[in-house]
Every structure is written in structure tokens, then in C-alpha cells.
Amino acid sequence: MEITDLTPAERRVWRAFPLDEGVDFREGADDDPDHGGSWGPERTVRAEVLRALLLGGPTRDGEVAGLKLIGARITGELRLKYGVVEHAVRLRSCHFERTPQLYGARLRVLVLSDSTLPELTAGALHTEGVLRMNRCRTTGPVRLAGAQIGGGLFLDGARLGTPDTRCEQPLLQLNNAAIGADIRAEGLIAHGTIRLNEATVTGQVNLDGSELHVPGGTALHAENLSVGNDLHAMRLRACGRVNLSGARVPRHLSLAHARLSHPGGQALRASSCVIGELWLRGAAPIEGEVNLSRSQIDLLHIRPETWPDCVRIDGLTYRSLAPHLPAEQRLPLLEREKEGYLPASYEQLTTAYRAAGDEAAARTVQLAKLRRHRRTLPRYARAWGHLQDVTVGYGFRPLRAAGWLFALLLTGTLAFALHHPRPLKSGEAPDFNPVFYTLDLLLPIIGFGQEAAFAPHGWYQWLSYLLIVTGWILATTTAAGVSRSLSRQ
Hints:
- The chain has a 13-stranded parallel β-sheet with strand order 1-3-5-8-12-16-20-24-27-29-31-33-35. Strands 9, 10, 13, 14, 17, 18, 21, 22, 25, 28, 30, 32 and 34 form a 13-stranded parallel β-sheet that branches. A six-stranded parallel β-sheet has the order 7-11-15-19-23-26, with no helix packed on it.
- Helices cover 27% and strands 26% of the residues.
- By secondary structure, the protein is an alpha/beta fold.
- It has nine helices and 37 strands.
């Protein structure tokens, strides 16, 4: 392109390029690129001029060339597909009339912050440094699938899509992308799906304060996402499913103070994940199902009221729970398992309480497990279970047996003290002692010589039979419960 073909605005850009000087067309700091379609020729630059500059523009010895344009209206299509650009590209607060075509391009740095674009096509893009799109606004998708970004990706305050238009494609496509530093998207607003499937992020992903709106669909699709350290999504507002299945987050996955809503579907799917710490501290009650099946989590920080009515936690393992709460507050969650009774879930909760040194809570969980299991048994087996529960709490409440024994001992002592049973051999029987006679009846192993020497009659005989039977039941259930408890230590 000859220099004589340029408009006055384009001439300014052409002359500034060899010196990496900025050209600012803004008439005021509050210029809104959304209204850039009405900007006149004095701030209009053709995309073909920018392409000519980037692929073969003038340079000066001893100077580093670069494109730095602010507040321009860019007409035509910026086509850099598979192009190699040796200069930094910074197009801030610009209004693009057509979608930039950057598929497969190789750039040093790309900055589109505060700009307005219909869409961005930049799949398989390579940048040596950062890609900045802070406060960028698009009505269509940002295609970065397979991109390799040497620095960070910045989308703070970006607005993707519009509330009244449902985009058929994901609005932000970062599947299979490789990010050399962080993804920062604080305050991002997207009216369509954010896709991070199979993406690799060396640093952290930050979605703090973001709003994702896909009612009835998937708001965040990040299957098999690999993060170097943290995934922050504090105060996230997600209307639609958050899918993190298979993700690897070695440190913190923070959904503190988040609001997740997908009624009738899975609001949070984080199955088969490996996570250091999962934080849902202060999060609103989740609307929709939560699926944490087969995930491995070191610390799970969530209050009972945050869980929804339906969960999937089959195979979930965790080392500790926070905050530390009584077992009675944690147990209702296990009743909400969609697959029904899962013994391993009770064992996992027991292990967590034992790791925290709360043996009483661990016993409470084990007792709840046996009661839940009892509901799955035939009627005759449930009757025996009820008996063990009432008498000794399946061995986890041994003081109940002592209470029953004391009550029966007191009953038998008073009854036989008022009416001594007759001796079997008059003149050979020892002195009658109602306490030890009752103990002889109750305890099937220990003998004090009283039971063999005296024989009650009438209803006292039936009382003795009752004491013998209840004594055997208490002894049997206590032995079974203690054996079960010891086998779990």
C-alpha cells in the first residue's frame, strides 16, 4: 500500500508505527466504543492498513516498531490468519465493525482492552506474551480454542454476549488452550457458555465476581481442566451448570459466597476431580444437584445448609471437613444420595471424624450407618436390628446395656425380696440374697450359687424366665456390638 493512499487518520498511525508511539483518537476519557459506529473519518482506520503495517510496515534502525492505537473505528476485516507479526499489537478502546480473523497467527503481544468487537476468531493463536481483553465487549463468541499464550490471559470486566440473544456456540472458547501464566477474568459477564475443556493453565484461574448466565444450559464447561495452583470463583453467579468433571486443581478451588443455580439439573458437577481444598464457605444454598462422585479432596469446606436436596457422592474421598460440626449436622447429607444407601459414604465420614480426633462423632456415624442399612433388610432381620439398637445401640452405646441391667436388677431384687423363692433342698441351701439371685438369672456366665439353690413358683417363675432371656439378649447384643466396634478400630 502506498503512503499516498492513506487518510489523515491513517497517516498518523503509519508515522507512529516505526517508533512504537501511541495514537489516541479519543475526544474524551468517557468515549464509549459501543457507539463507535458513528465515529467520523477523522478517527477511522481501515483494517487493511493495519494489516499492511503489521506484516510489512516501515521500521527504523535502533527503534522497536509497534502498533498502539486508542479510540479508533476500524473498518473492514483485520485478516492475520496464519500471519507472523513481529510487533506488539495494542488496539485499546477501539470499535471493530467486523470480526478480526487471527486464526493460527503468531504475535508478540495482543491487547484489545476496552474495545468492542462483533466476535473474535483466534483459534490456535500463538502469543509470546499476554493477551489482554479487559473490559472488552463482544456480541458473539471469542474463539481461542487451541491457543498457546505465553503470558497471561486477561478478561477482567469483559462482557460477552447479550441478555436477549442466545448464542449457539460457547461465548468464550478456550478448550485445549495452553496458558503460560494466569487466566484473570474478575467481574466477567457472559450470557453464554465459557468452555475450558482440556485447557492447561500454568498459574491460576480467577473468576471472582463473575456472572455466567445460561439458564437451562451449561454456564462453565471445564472438563479435564488442569490448573497449576488455584481456581478462584468467589462470589460467582452461575445460572446454569458448572461442569468441572476431571479437573486438576492442586491447591484451592474456591466457590466461597458463590450462587449456583440449575434447577432440575446438576448445578455443580465436579466428579473424578483431584482438588487440594474445595471451599464453599458462605455460599448460598445450591439450587440443583451436586455431583462429587469419585473425586479426591484434601479439605472440603462447606456448611450443611449449602448442600442441595440431591447429591451424588459415591466414591468421594476427603481427609477433613470444615467447619468441624457435630455428626448429627453432617449425617442428613448422606440421606440425600441419589443412588440410595452407600456404606462407603458413612465410612468416609467416620474416617474424617477419627482423623480430627472426634471418636464420639465417629461412633455416631457408624450407628447411623447401621440404622440406615437396617432399612434395606427383610422384616425379620430388621426386628433383630431394632432389638440391638434399643438395647445397646449396636454396641456403640454400651451404657444402654448397663442401664437395662440395672433396671432389671432392681426389678428382680425388689420382687424376690418381697417373696423369697423356696429352696430346692431344705437345710442345704445357702442364705437367700435377692441381689445375687437376680444377678445369677441375668448373667449367663457368672454364677453365685443362688439360681441352682432356689426355685420360684407362680408368676415369680415367669419373672425368672424373663430375666434369663433378657440377660442372654443383652449379653449377645453387647458382644456383637463390641466385636463390631473393635473390628473397625
